[in-house]
Design a protein that fits this description.
By secondary structure, this protein is α/β, with parallel strands linked by helices. Among the domains are: 255 residues, Type I PLP-dependent aspartate aminotransferase-like (Major domain) (Aspartate Aminotransferase, domain 2, 3-Layer(aba) Sandwich), CATH 3.40.640.10; 244 residues, Type I PLP-dependent aspartate aminotransferase-like (Major domain) (Aspartate Aminotransferase, domain 2); 157 residues, Aspartate Aminotransferase, domain 1. Helix content is 40%, strand content 13%. The chain has 30 helices and 26 strands. Strands 1-7-6-5-4-2-3 form a seven-stranded mixed beta sheet, with helices on both faces. A seven-stranded mixed beta sheet has the order 14-20-19-18-17-15-16, with helices on both faces. A four-stranded antiparallel beta sheet has the order 10-11-13-12. Helix 2 runs parallel beside helix 8 and helix 5 runs parallel beside helix 6. The longest helix has 39 residues. The chain is globular. Its cofactor is pyridoxal 5'-phosphate. It is an enzyme of class 4 (lyase).
Length: 940
């Protein structure tokens, strides 16, 4: 309750209201892990539709049957990093082919650039060449930008909607100038458009404005779905002009979740809700609906702007064309300044940030009000009225109230701040009216506003028009919210059941009380730390609880060093980046080269380690596996360590068979090697799965900060931390293990905010859910859950052993899962068992092991909290049915199904199924559905 009200947080561009029908869809899908594409084909299809709709909106040069090239992300920060990485890799490949050096790449952009560009530059070692601003001109000057371009420029980044004042940069002018420079020099410097805010505005308000793929040098565009795409925090998009602009080497293909899955993201596990919500908005509103919303925002912006101008106390810094916001500064700030206005407005409930402009305009301070869909004309008028009250109060106070407020307490013992506020109590009482106004808005929305409501400037009244819509383009007209809900809900029935998805480690059930907390916080953007101090405090508590769980060497009053992330993928990249930067700094200080850093790990490593290595240009030295030994051998790992090794990564809970690696043995061997060589090679523990298991089931096992070389640990809150997808944690041993240079400090949201993440905007719900679980369950509760999972694992394992048809590949000590393979797979194999189990609703993945054990194929069942003993027994029973059926079929049904068509013209799949019609007839419908959904290029 002590957090700010998201609806009154005028610092944020992020959506804070959606229709109840969309809220219902999001809650119904909150337990789906989006990365399981094969298990949730409809959700994957909805993302593809969103990508294509947005690509057409941005005028991508697509043929009628051509699919757009793009991906959904957690937000524009991840989207920008992916786009930047693609530019960097294309530039490197071209330079290598020409025999030219590939060091010192740079990006040219304006000093008004969002902080994620600075993060990309610092983390991926790209120079950011910033065009300075000047008073009255707060966007990038195209002429100056092009002057700064050289042969090492991987792209020029233009902003469609500056965070500072909402202004659109002149991308058309930039394109024309850069075309000329490319002709003169023979370079092919491209443009990226950061349309985080403006991408869902320009197509509707300024359709003639050329800023997108209509310009030949624009190769990629990012946009935030959670800003003017009208979805809660946690969704962004990046679209490429064509396939050639996204290097194939950056795309990963993984198969251990049950099918080949191409992926180009920094994160891995994440929720599905935001993707579904984005599709809801696109079909619900259509072109007409989005245009209506944006026009309404623009009109309310003008109301606010004109109201401020009438006070004759402010200069308006923002422009009419751009993102609908009003940035304004005091004409005279000698007696009082913008920060005082910002502070005093909080008394009325308003969160209006004050911030200084970047160099060379840092002497200019502005206040900024972002006009979102939920900000009505009535609220705009109320805000102007409250600003006038604040101005009147400041006029009666001594100069610089802020310094007086910080003065010593008076003779009455009350703080100066208290006395100042009490003296204005009569004014404060009047501000209760804003609560009444909000209640009226909520009531009006529930009663479905009529024509008379327009007169009182209702926000949502003009949206609802019924029409049909195309599949991959935005419809011209809106459709009723009930229709949008039903269309999407009906399609989603064809997704797999998350509770029966035994491929996934990710939590699929939480208590209803926690669900309620999550929905109540779904509209809070976590990055606004100053506006939501309690949510920030809850994250800090989680970090400290987990650090103590991992035996971090903390003093009594010492806070842990750690951060919440979207999952273990982001956590691992942050930890890896810290190791790389520490190693580089040490090598520079010693006058040694800093090329060719490496990480030593097992071949059983999760794909995010391969992503980190490829994206951050670190060699991954993998210890090969062998049959019967599917984890990293500590002896072989330490043998591979050299002076360029930034860390050795051990896994507490292999994805393949759940086994814990021997971190204690690794630590002891590495201590000896460090003594011999004088190196100080550290250890990172990837405890994504095992971090919330080992402390409760194996408390004596030494794997964590009790070992001196363990410098950082990651864990997934959305696995055995028992939270839905979208939360992870990384903990460092102490402050010295996290280089200060990697931490960013930003202020344009209204206060100094330290941040070390790859993402920026994200929801608060998962943080709150993690804290709920930690205090709800406590040590006893977590131990009970993990013991129950282990017992159900034993039930399943013993049931499979009784069939005498399987070898158990997993171990009893480790993550509670059962990995098993056929003793005899000459007639039929594990993939056939996996396919046939889908008939019973089970999603059980089959996959091959990594080198040098790739000849071994296994099935894997992950035992989560929601997998009961009864389900374990039912699964064994269904596996026995599948085995019995396979025994009656010809050898290798799967190969027969894929054979050439016969003389009767029927596909081999049809003939094979018809020969077993008596047994398979009942399953034909689901087989048809799955086949059409998963077949490459198929669209239903």
């Amino acid at each position: 309750m002590l957090d700010g009200n998201p609806r009154l947080n005028l610092a944020s561009f992020v959506t804070t209201w959606m229709e109840p029908e969309c809220d219902k869809l999001m809650m119904a899908s909150i337990n789906k892990n989006y990365v399981d594409m094969d298990e949730y084909p409809v959700t994957t299809e909805l993302q593809n539709r969103c990508v294509n709709i947005i690509a057409h909106l941005f005028n991508a040069p697509l043929e009628d049957s051509e699919s757009a090239v793009g991906v959904g992300t957690v937000g524009s920060s991840e989207a920008i990093m992916l786009a930047g990485l693609a530019f960097k890799r294309k530039w490197q490949n071209k330079r290598r082919a020409e025999g030219k050096p590939i060091d010192n790449p740079n990006i040219v952009t304006g000093a008004n650039v969002q902080v994620c560009w600075e993060k990309f530059a610092r983390y991926f070692e790209v120079e950011l060449k910033e065009v300075k601003l000047r008073e009255g001109y707060y966007v990038m000057d195209p002429e100056k930008a092009v002057e700064m371009v050289d042969e090492n420029t991987i792209c020029v980044a233009a902003i469609l909607g500056s965070t500072l004042n909402g202004e659109f940069e002149d991308v058309k002018r930039l394109n024309d100038l850069l075309v000329e420079k490319n002709k003169e020099t023979g370079w092919d410097t491209p443009i990226h458009v950061d349309a985080a805010s403006g991408g869902f505005i320009a197509p509707f308000l300024y359709p003639e404005l050329e800023w997108d793929f209509r310009l030949p040098l624009v190769k990629s565009i990012n946009v935030s779905g959670h800003k003017y795409g009208l979805v809660y925090a946690g969704i962004g998009w990046v679209i490429w002009r064509n396939k050639e602009d996204l290097p194939e080497e950056l795309i990963f293909h993984i198969n251990y979740l049950g099918a080949d899955q191409p992926t180009f993201t920094l994160n891995f596990s994440k929720g599905s809700s935001q993707v579904i919500a984005q599709y809801y908005q696109l079909i619900r509103l259509g072109f007409e609906g989005y245009r209506n919303v944006m026009e309404n925002c623009r009109e309310n912006m003008i109301v606010l702007k004109e109201g401020l101008e009438k006070t004759k106390r402010f200069n308006i810094v923002s422009k009419d064309e751009g993102v609908p916001l009003v940035a304004f500064s005091l004409r005279d700030n000698h007696r009082h300044d913008e920060f005082e206005i910002s502070d005093l407005l909080r008394r009325f409930g308003w969160i209006v940030p004050a911030y200084t402009m970047p160099p060379d305009a840092q002497h200019v301070t502005v206040l900024r009000v972002v006009i979102r869909e939920d900000f009505s004309r009535t609220l705009a008028e109320r805000l102007v009225n409250d600003i006038q009250k604040v101005l009147h109060e400041l006029d009666t106070l001594p100069s610089k109230l802020s310094s007086n407020v910080k003065a010593a307490d008076g003779e009455d013992g009350k703080p100066a701040e208290t006395r100042a506020l009490e003296s204005k109590k009569s004014d404060l009482e009047k501000t209760r009216e804003i609560t009444t106004i909000w209640r009226k808005f909520v009531t009006a929305r529930k009663q479905k506003m009529n024509v008379s409501d327009v007169f009182v400037h209702s926000t949502f009244a003009s949206r609802y028009v019924r029409t049909s819509f195309p599949r991959f383009k935005m419809a011209e007209n809106s459709i009723p919210k009930e229709a949008a809900y039903q269309i999407i809900n009906d399609e989603l029935m064809l997704d797999g059941n998350p509770r029966l998805n035994l491929a996934s480690f990710v939590t699929t059930w939480m208590e209803p009380e926690c669900d309620k907390l999550m929905m109540a916080s779904i509209n809070k953007n976590y990055v606004d730390m100053d506006e939501y101090p309690v949510t920030t405090e809850l994250q800090n508590r989680c970090v400290n609880i987990i650090a103590h769980l991992f035996n971090a060497p903390l003093g009594e009053s010492e806070s842990a060093v750690g951060v919440g992330t979207l999952g273990s993928s982001e956590a691992i990249m942050l930890a890896g980046l810290a190791f790389k930067r520490k190693w580089q700094n040490k090598r520079r200080a010693e006058g040694k080269p800093i090329d060719n850093p490496n990480i030593v790990t097992g071949a059983n490593v999760q794909v995010c380690w391969e992503k980190f290595a490829r994206y951050f240009e670190v060699e991954l030295k993998e210890v090969k596996l062998r049959e019967g030994y599917y984890v990293m051998d500590p002896e072989k790992a330490v043998e591979m360590v050299d002076e360029n090794t930034i860390c050795v990564a051990a896994i507490l809970g292999s994805t393949l068979n759940g086994e814990f690696e021997d971190v204690k043995r690794l630590n002891d061997l590495l201590v000896e090697k460090n003594k011999e060589t004088g190196w100080d090679t550290p250890i990172h523990v990837d405890a994504a799965s095992g971090g919330f298991i080992a402390p409760f089931l194996y408390p004596e096992l030494e794997w964590d900060f009790r070992l001196p070389l363990v410098k950082s640990i990651n864990v997934s809150g959305h696995k055995y931390g028992l939270v839905y997808a979208g939360i992870g944690w990384v903990i460092w041993r102490n402050k010295e293990d996290l280089p200060e240079e990697l931490i960013f400090h930003i202020n344009y949201l209204g206060a100094d905010q330290p941040t070390f993440t790859l993402n920026f905007s994200k929801g608060s719900s998962q943080v709150i859910a993690q804290y709920y679980q930690l205090i709800r369950l406590g040590f006893e509760g977590y131990r009970n859950v993990m013991e129950n999972c282990r017992e159900n694992m034993i039930v399943l394992k013993e049931g499979l052993e009784k069939t005498e048809r399987f070898n158990i590949v997993s171990k009893d000590e480790g993550v509670p899962l059962v990995a098993f393979s056929l003793r005899d797979n000459h007639r039929h194999d594990e993939f056939e068992i996996s396919d046939l189990l889908r008939r019973f609703g089970w999603i059980v993945p089959a996959y091959t092991m990594p080198p040098d054990a790739q000849h071994v194929t296994v099935l894997r069942v992950v035992i989560r909290e929601d997998f009961s003993r009864t389900l374990a027994e039912r699964l064994v029973n269904d596996i026995q049915k599948v085995l019995h059926e396979l025994d009656t079929l010809p050898s290798k049904l799967s190969s027969n199904v894929k054979a050439a068509d016969g003389e009767d013209g029927k596909p081999a799949e049809t003939r094979a199924l018809e020969s077993k019609k008596s047994d398979l007839e009942k399953t034909r419908e689901i087989t048809t559905i799955w086949g059409s959904l998963l077949r490459p290029g198929s669209r239903r």
